[in-house]
Amino acid sequence: MEHLKIASDNYVAFTFFIGTMAMMAASVFFFFELNNTSPKWRTSVLVSGLITFIAAVHYYYMRGYNLETGESPTFFRYVDWILTVPLMCVEFYLITKKAGAKVALLWKLIFASLVMLVTGYFGETIDRDHSVMWGVISGGAYFYIAYLIWFGEVASLAQTAGAQVAKATRVLAWFVLVGWAIYPLGYILGTPGGLFGMQLVADPAAASHAMDIVYNIADAINKIGFGLVIYALSRNED
Ligand SMILES: *C/C=C(C)/C=C/C=C(C)/C=C/C1=C(C)CCCC1(C)C
Fold first, then answer.
1. How far, in Å, is the centroid of ligand 1 from the Cα of 102?
2. Residue 211 scores a pLDDT above 60
3. Ligand 1 nearest-atom number relative to CA 123
4. Is 124 in the pocket of ligand 1 (CB under 6 A)?
5. Fewer Cβ within 10 Å of end Cβ, the chain: N or C?
6. Counts of helices then strands in the chain (DSSP H, E)
7. Helix (H) or strand (E) holding 186
8. Tens digit of pLDDT for each residue in 121-169?
């Protein structure tokens, strides 16, 4: 079998490689720290570890796929997101639960995240001609999630859940508003006619590479960063 090497100027393959390593390391960290986490926060830290672990497995696969084919692993990218983004919704539910968060709130967040991801997938794959329309619908669901976290139920519950939970929720809300906003940027870069018919990167292969690099950076920031905020909360609050 041919031995596949990562060329030193292949930034796509390189970020898949680093992403795999970072997700693995973060998972080991969260799982091992469970032992000295107070029982009250154990589930939250466990979920942080599950998010990075699921991503590690997908990144390991996507790294190989990209190296062998040179293509963007869109399908498994979305499989990863469809598993991990709802788990991030579970994190919001868990930290506001003691202030009275209901399961209905969790379902609202999960439903909106599924609408966001499924419509994004349509725009990237089966209906690329209408990528702007799908992107706008996906963006609507995204803003609804951001609204719930910044001004809606999540925000008001966090206010009554104690100073540390309120503080952590505020940091996580910034992750959703700024960190998650990197994804539509990748979508715009990679999709033909991405920004209202305007193609930012003209060469289709280069556009798809730019998209993967942006998605890989966003995943590292959002999955590991998000988990670390939960971890910090588990140390500050008892
Ligand atoms: C760990 C993975 C995460 C946090 C993924 C988040 C993904 C998004 C916030 C994606 C959002 C999109 C839009 C808001 C519009 C264009 C299509 C998407 C799916 C890229």
1. 25
2. yes
3. 17
4. no
5. N
6. 10, 0
7. helix 182-190
8. 999 999 988 888 999 999 999 999 999 999 999 999 999 999 999 999 9
In CATH terms, the fold of domain 2-235 is Rhopdopsin 7-helix transmembrane proteins (1.20.1070)
Top mutation candidate among 58, 113, 142, 219 for ligand 1, by most atoms within 8 Å of CB: 142
Domain boundaries, the chain: 2-235
Instruction: Report whether 168 contacts 232 (CB < 8 A).
Output: yes
Residue to probe by mutation, ligand 1, list 117, 121, 172, 189, most atoms within 8 Å of CB: 117
pLDDT tens digits along 26-66: 999 999 999 999 999 999 999 999 999 999 999 999 999 99
- Residue with the nearest Cα to atom 5 of ligand 1? 81
How many other C-beta atoms are found inside a 10 Å radius of the C-beta of residue 71? 12
In angstroms, the CA 170 to CA 149 distance is 9
Using the atom order of ligand 1, give the atom closest to the CA of residue 121: 19
For the entire predicted model, the pTM comes to 0.94
Mean pLDDT value across residues 214-218: 96
Ligand 1 atom showing the smallest separation from residue 116 Cα:
19
Both structure tokens of 132: 């702007």
